Amino acid sequence: MNDGQYTALKARIRQLTRIDLDFYKDVQMRRRLDNYIRARDQTVEAFVRTLSQSPQEVQRLKDFLTINVTEFFRDPEQFDILRRKVIPDLIKRGSKLSVWSAGCSKGAEAYTLAMILSEATPSVEFSILATDIDDGVLALAREGGPYTPADLRALPKAFALKYFTKTPEGHFVKDEARRGVTFRKHNLLADTYERGFDLILCRNVVIYFTEEAKANITRGFSMALKPDGFLFIGATEALLQAQSLGLDRLSTCFYQKVGDVPRALAA
Ligand SMILES: C[S@@+](CC[C@H](N)C(=O)[O-])C[C@H]1O[C@@H](n2cnc3c(N)ncnc32)[C@H](O)[C@@H]1O
Questions:
Q1: Average pLDDT over residues 75-99
Q2: CA 146/CA 261 separation, integer angstroms
Q3: Is 179 helix (H, G, I), strand (E, B) or coil?
Q4: Can you say how many angstroms the Cα of residue 65 is from the centroid of all Cα atoms in its chain?
């Protein structure tokens, strides 16, 4: 599509979905949308008309744009680092742990955390806020399922037996792993961020965002973390400006907020 068509399409999508494609990498997004529209055998103009007439098409496009792929214990080796190194450090601090799973999709990440924290020490108190822009995935997450066998692929057997119920519709998370988990709609690119978190997970969410949008989100997370709090990102991601935003890189996926709030952020 040409520049004029892309600008008009972005405006319509913003109106209908609240998703602002100016925050997404231009070349990739344009290519993805071109393929999406071509697969429907439509011109850009006809596609815009379809969107205006069909809420189902709007929902389908939203699903396509937000990409909800997830699973329990996604990147198990990173969850192992979380369990062995990060969580013991947080538990030592002695207070109730406050965690945010940002861009949580169907909730597999938030429930994975709830299981790990429940196992870490039965006495540790925690709350997990899990947010996403997409109502559809949040509805499934709030119900605790149904999850498919693919969603449970990396889940340790013992956890599957202890924390899941199998039904004809799929697997559901038991109440034991839902304790302390709250789901809420939240747009990382538009809404304000709560503060006071010990740990934030934002994994496989910002991949298609522009560097500017990523920097704004990282700044928001830095402000939302308590001093010495941790940020856990996706295995294929990197935060280019972390240091200047007060975050030390600890390993591929883990960053830690420096103890004192940096001057630039305190203003
Ligand atoms: C690929 S999933 C990642 C799920 C989980 N974090 C994981 O790694 O398994 C990306 C999620 O980010 C959500 N998302 C995309 N843009 C968002 C935004 N602006 N604000 C909040 N969530 C967003 C999508 O709806 C989707 O559920």
A1: 94
A2: 42
A3: coil
A4: 14
Residues 107, 130 contacting (CB under 8 angstroms): yes
Residue where the block lists tokens 């240091």 = 243
Coarse DSSP helix, strand, coil percentages of the chain, rounded to the nearest 5 percent: 45, 20, 35
Cite the beta strand spans of 103-224 per DSSP E: 126-132, 164-167, 170-173, 181-185, 197-202
**Segment holding 9, helix H or strand E:** helix 3-17
The radius of gyration computed from the CA coordinates of the chain, to the nearest angstrom, equals: 20
Strand partners, 249: 255
Q: Hey, which of 100, 132, 202 would you mutate to test ligand 1's pocket, going by the most ligand atoms within 8 Å of its Cβ? A: 132
Identify the structural domains of the chain with CATH numbers, from first to last. Answer: 3-66 (no CATH), 76-266 (3.40.50.150)
Q: Which residues line ligand 1 (CB under 6 A)?
A: 66-70, 74, 103-105, 109, 132-134, 137, 186-189, 203-205
- For 164, the token pair is 């899941």
pTM (2 d.p.): 0.89
pLDDT band at residue 265 under the 50/70/90 scheme? very low
pLDDT of res. 62: 87
For the chain, how far is it from start to end, CA to CA, in angstroms? 43
pLDDT value, residue 158: 96
46 Cα to the center of ligand 1, angstroms: 29
